[in-house]
Every structure is written in C-alpha cells, then in structure tokens.
Write a structure and sequence with these properties.
The chain is of the alpha/beta class. It contains seven helices and six strands, in the order αβαβαβαβααβαβ. A six-stranded parallel β-sheet has the order 3-2-4-5-1-6, sandwiched between helices. The structure holds adenosine-5'-triphosphate and magnesium ion (MG).
Amino acid sequence: MDSDKKARHNDRMARKKAVVDAAIERAQTERGVVIVITGNGKGKSTSGFGTLFRALGHGQNVGVVQFIKGTQATGEVIFLQQCALPSVQYFAMATGFTWNTQNWDADKQAADEAWSHASALLADPAVDLVLLDELTYMLKYHFLDEAQVLDAIAARPEGQTVVITGRAAQPALRELADTVSEIAAEKHAFKGGIKARAGVDF
Ligand code: ATP
Ligand code: MG
C-alpha cells in the first residue's frame, strides 16, 4: 500500500475510534436488558442458548422455558441436562404445542403451566438470565395474555436479562425490548433439499 493510502486508512480508523469511544462513554446505565430475536431466518433459538451459555461462563444463574417442544430433543437441551448444573433451571411446555394441534384446552393448560415457571423466574432476583424460547407463538395464538406477559417482563428484577425468541414478535414486545434482532431468511439448506441435521438443526 502506498503511503498516501496508508495515511488515509489511519485517518479513517482514528475517526472511527473517536466515534466508538464516544458511544462507549455514553453507555453508562447498568441493568439487565430485554432481547428479542425474531424473523423468519435460522438462528433465533441457537442465539438464545448461545447467550445463556455466555452467562453461564460468567457464573450466572439462568432459567429456560421452552414454549414449543419439537419431536426431537435439541442438542443444547440434551447437553444442559447432561451437565446437571445447579445454576440452570429448565422447563418445557408439557404437551408440546404443535402446528396441527386441535386441542385448545390441553394447549392452554400447558401454556399456563409453562408460564407459571416463567413468571417465577421473572420474579427471582437470583436469576440473572431468563430465556423464553418460542414465546411469541403463545401470544400469537392467545394462549397467554399479552399484557400479563409484558407486565411480568417489565417488572423483573433490575439486574435480570430476558431473551425472547420466536417468529413475528408482537409490536408491544419489540417496543418493550432494549435489543431487537430480526433474522432474515436469505437461504436455508432445507429448501435446497438437505435433511435436518443433528447438531445443526436440532
Ligand atoms: P435454530 O434453533 O436453528 O436457531 P430458529 O430458532 O431460528 O432456529 P425455528 O423457527 O425455531 O428457528 O425453527 C427451528 C428449526 O427450523 C431448525 O431446525 C431450523 O434449522 C429450521 N429453520 C429455521 N428457519 C428456517 C427457514 N427459514 N427455513 C427452513 N427451516 C428453518
Ligand atoms: Mg427457535
């Protein structure tokens, strides 16, 4: 690279550093956050569990409620169960809501029971991170009351972080969140005929 180019590059980097430093200086509030991972692309639940493992690495206490259980146990849940860590509380919705379910009453009861675990986690100051996996579907199909869910999240202990996953996050949930990531489905292997793989898709 000629010296002119190098000088321009260094100049650009210095300006970028000033912007980043100023942003770091501005961010001084310390509290738990609400993170919503939504959209049609792959990577929502794995992101939620990735954040959970990140918290565990720092010795934090975490809780998970899965509002939809697939037919196959996912690797992250199998691994958590194998670890049997006292710092992890895990609950899955009993019946496992499915797309072709016809039993509103059974699903409603299962959703209420799962929510009772979620609301206990959201009220516990000893829990640093709560993952509510696939929560958006419970709101979409009105198995849970949106206002009640939002109130419980808003009233959580100050230091507690909540991660919510699921497609089509409700506007009020996005509004309440501090961080919202919309994962777009640009491509997915399944549409190319590749069978769901252990360790990748479940
Ligand atoms: P993951 O658990 O892999 O992070 P996700 O939580 O973003 O995925 P879900 O809608 O919960 O997505 O569906 C989970 C399963 O569906 C996974 O097997 C995933 O590979 C698959 N999947 C996710 N997005 C798509 C898509 N756009 N097209 C096809 N299959 C998808
Ligand atoms: Mg998911």
